[in-house]
Amino acid sequence: MTSSLVVAIPSNNPGGLEAGISEHFGHCDLFTLIKIQEGKVASVETVSNVEHAEGGCMAPVQLLKDQGAQAIVVGGIGGRPLQMFSEVSIDVYYRAKGGLNNVQAAVNGMIDGKFPIMHSDQACGGH
């Protein structure tokens, strides 16, 4: 991991490190943005998700790009949004759905290098 990284975690209200993780990035309440610097949490911010119609996943992708996100951690993602994240240079990391119950656990996984980058053959169908 680079010395500084801004990671987006799809979150349930109210966001922050203790917030629950949303299982669907496109329809999450908000994103918790964590700046990881030298292996530690340097800052925590939240940004509300934007309204978008089904198939309009570019709206949250662009929102995260505009907020400076360099990575996102998801439990699954469709092929189209995965491609969109790639096009705006945001890395998509996969976390197993079991065992991680809050944003802090996802941040710890990123710091510890436990999540692999997702590839197009790992995308969910039907999104």
Walk me through the structure:
The structure is a single chain. The protein is an alpha/beta fold. It has a single domain (4-122), classed as Dinitrogenase iron-molybdenum cofactor biosynthesis domain (Nucleotidyltransferase, domain 5). Helix content is 21%, strand content 26%. It has a five-stranded mixed beta sheet, sandwiched between helices. Strand 2 and strand 3 form a beta hairpin. The longest helix is centred in the middle third of the chain and has 9 residues, at 58-66. The protein is globular, with a radius of gyration of 13 Å. The termini are far apart. The relative contact order is 0.22.
In total, how many domains does the architecture comprise?
Answer: 1
Low-confidence regions: none
User: Could you give the distance between the termini?
Assistant: 30 Å
Radius of gyration, CA atoms, in whole angstroms: 13 Å
Q: Mean of the pLDDT scores?
A: 88
Counting H and I runs of at least 4 residues, what is the number of helices? 3
Instruction: Spell out the CATH superfamily.
Output: Dinitrogenase iron-molybdenum cofactor biosynthesis domain
SS-based class:
alpha/beta
Defining key terms:
127 residues, alpha/beta, Nucleotidyltransferase, domain 5, five-stranded mixed beta sheet, 3 helices, 5 strands, 21% helix, globular, DiNase_FeMo-co_biosyn_sf, Di-Nase_FeMo-co_biosynth, Putative Fe-Mo cluster-binding protein, NifX family
Quick structural gist:
The chain is built from 3 helices and 5 strands; from the N terminus they run βββαβαβα. The longest helix has 9 residues, at 58-66. The chain is an alpha/beta fold and 127 residues long.
